[in-house]
């Protein structure tokens, strides 16, 4: 076994019984050996070559047991039939087309009828020079224009239409009506909405006495509470809301009779301060008490009420007059802490002595003016 392995190792091939492969291996190794310099190597190669040719064939290796040995044999294939592919679509169940030989005639012959051109026509085509064709007509006339969408009216006209529609509705339906107007086609443009807001503020200010009740609806629908500070109409919106607060505050006095001292005090505060008129008004203790009570009530109200419900200069004059009167009535004491409530009741219950002191102070003021 060792000699057999040396034979194949000298030849440089695996054990084989192919004579041609042995001869090729011997010829290749023979080119690598010089017979004169290494006769022993040549002698070993020659002996290995002769022994390889005379080596007996090796017995075949034992066959591994087949896993399919216990299964029945497959049926022999039948000639002339091919297995059909599995059905994937409903079309695969159609019957196969019959196979025809290549030389079978067609069911419908193909008729190609070509009219040959004359020699004159071919010569004329060859002599013609290529020229650009006429300009397409689509470039010569204007193409179809897109139909413009609905255009909104002018901002002033739209603002007037919205105010007229709101005037016919109760207050709880006005916000939904404003949203309906703003949702119309063509009203979503930002430039138009900005101009419309300006027109609405202008329309409300110009006819404020008739349209003041619409201000809360616009305040909620247009989001003035969040976005008024960023609007170009910020000052106008703030003035409009201040006037609305002042109007609501003035409605508290609508139920009072016109001859009431509080109504007279409010009417006097609505005009610029006149020292003569104010001195004459203060001669009446009831009117003076009502004025001082109204001044203290206004100090607790919002600044918008003092700016738009009354004359702010007159309010400052009477405010200073009330402080001077308080110091004159109690000269040796510091001004007491103002009570925010019950001022009108305390002034109404003022003693005769204090009323007399107020009258004397008014007379002293008149003498100084004269």
**What is the averaged pLDDT score?**
77
The level of helicity is 55-70%
Q: Into how many domains do the coordinates divide? A: 3
Query: Could you give the count of β-strands?
Result: 0
As an assembly, this protein is single chain
Helical run tally:
19
- Beta-strand residue fraction: under 5%
Order of helices and strands: HHHHHHHHHHHHHHHHHHH
The biggest sheet amounts to: none
Give a brief description:
The chain is mainly α.
Describe the structure.
The protein is mainly α and 370 residues long. It folds into three domains: 53 residues, no CATH class; 96 residues; 113 residues, no CATH class. Helices cover 56% and strands 0% of the residues. The protein is built from 19 helices and no strands. The chain is elongated and about 160 Å long.
């Amino acid at each position: 076994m060792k000699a057999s392995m040396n034979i194949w190792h000298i030849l440089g091939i695996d054990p084989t019984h192919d004579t041609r492969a042995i001869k090729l291996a011997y010829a290749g190794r023979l080119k690598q050996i010089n017979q004169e310099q290494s006769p022993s190597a040549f002698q070993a190669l020659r002996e290995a070559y002769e022994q390889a040719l005379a080596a007996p064939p090796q017995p075949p290796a034992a066959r591994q047991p087949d896993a399919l040995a216990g299964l029945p044999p497959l049926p022999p294939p039948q000639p002339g039939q091919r297995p059909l592919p599995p059905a994937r679509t409903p079309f695969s169940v159609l019957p196969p087309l019959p196979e025809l030989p290549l030389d079978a005639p067609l069911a419908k012959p193909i008729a190609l009828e070509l009219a040959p051109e004359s020699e004159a026509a071919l010569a004329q085509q060859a002599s013609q020079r290529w020229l650009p064709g006429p300009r397409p007509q689509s470039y010569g006339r204007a193409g179809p224009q897109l139909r413009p969408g609905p255009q909104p009216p002018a901002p002033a006209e739209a603002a007037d239409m919205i105010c007229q529609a709101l005037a016919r509705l109760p207050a709880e339906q006005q916000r939904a009506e404003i949203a309906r107007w703003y949702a119309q086609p063509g009203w979503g443009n930002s430039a138009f909405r900005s101009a419309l807001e300006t027109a609405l503020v202008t329309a409300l200010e110009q006819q404020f006495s008739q349209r003041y009740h619409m201000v809360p609806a616009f305040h909620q629908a247009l989001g003035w509470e969040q976005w008024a500070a960023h609007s170009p109409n910020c000052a106008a919106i703030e003035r409009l809301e201040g006037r609305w607060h002042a109007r609501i505050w003035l409605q508290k006095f609508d139920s009072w009779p016109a001859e009431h001292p509080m109504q007279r005090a409010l009417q006097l505060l609505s005009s610029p301060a006149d020292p003569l008129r104010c001195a004459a008004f203060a001669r009446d203790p009831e009117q003076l008490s009502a004025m001082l009570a109204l001044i203290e009530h206004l100090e607790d109200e919002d600044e918008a009420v003092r700016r738009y419900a009354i004359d702010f200069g007159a309010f400052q004059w009477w405010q200073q007059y009330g402080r001077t009167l308080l110091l004159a009535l109690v000269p040796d004491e510091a001004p007491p802490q103002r009570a925010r409530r019950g001022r009108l009741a305390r002034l109404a219950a003022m003693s005769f002595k204090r009323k007399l002191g107020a009258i004397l102070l008014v007379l002293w003021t008149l003498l100084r003016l004269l």
